[in-house]
Write the structure tokens for this entry.
Amino acid sequence: MQAADLDLLIDSARAAGEVALTYSGKTAKKWEKPDDAGPVTEADLAVNDLLADRLQSARPGYGWLSEETEDDDARLSRDKVFIIDPIDGTRSFVDGSDTWAHALAIVDQGVVIAGVIYLPKRDLLYSASLGQGAFLNGKPIGPKESSDLSGAEILAAGPVLNASHWAGDTSPEFRRVYRPSLAYRMALVAEGRFDGMLTLRPCWEWDIAAGDLILREAGAVCTDRTGGTLQFNNAHPMQNGLIAAGRSIHKQIATSLKQDRRDIPRA
């Protein structure tokens, strides 16, 4: 069933790409979400409708959590749940860039068992099934195993370099680079393009569920900002930041950060 679930996600991600590419990001209708939560476009909604129809029809017993669907706590009573971001990197989509992605995952009792990140404009499809490795367009991938954080290339937003986040009030001397889609950042680390990625802000589960499995199956370490294991399908579907890298770089980042163990409500 696990292999069939992954095939379902792959086919659905490609279908989502076909729908999204019928829209032009610069001309698509756009709205701002409440509470400064960012933009949503008609393409996000069209992709969400497609995925909800395809996935829930194929697996009616699975729960549903998507960025573009009003949350329903019925998912909390389901062992298996789809966790979906129809378009991760909507701002990138609106700008006409090609670094936005579809992120699809299936969680079984809090653990991701199948995940896909697909960038249709680049024809990059990252996939993983629990215990079966991680792949890019069907070829196995693995992370960099760099040993020194100093000089490493880390995908992160600018504020992570604020010295107040780091032990000794001094940020490490890594090279910061950036990509708009959080899911894509995770995938880039999984394939070894960068040494690691870091976000200190709370993360919505739909942004990171697929990437969590792809990273772990590739051989990287993926945790919250405190080094804690990620558990999904929480009542408040958020995680306390994210660190992803090869084992050595991950340890150096985790031990260099000030430990902010803020409580995020969970099921």
Summary: The helical segments are 2-20, 42-58, 90-94, 182-190, 205-218, 247-256.
